[in-house]
Amino acid sequence: MKNFLIAFIKLLLLAYITFGVVLFINQRDLLYAPTVKTNHVFDEVIFHNDKESINVIVVNDKKEKAILYFGGNGDTVARSAFAFDKFFPEYTVYLVNYRGYGGSSGEPTEKGIYTDAIAIFDQIRAKHRDISVLGRSLGSGVATYMATKRKFDKLVLITPYDSAQNIVQERFPMYPMSILLKDKYDSVSRVKDIEAKTLILIAGDDNVIPMKHTKQLIEAFPASKVEVKIIEGVGHNTILLDDRYYHVLQKFMQAHYSHTK
Question: Is the entire prediction scored with pTM above 0.90?
Answer without folding.
Answer: yes
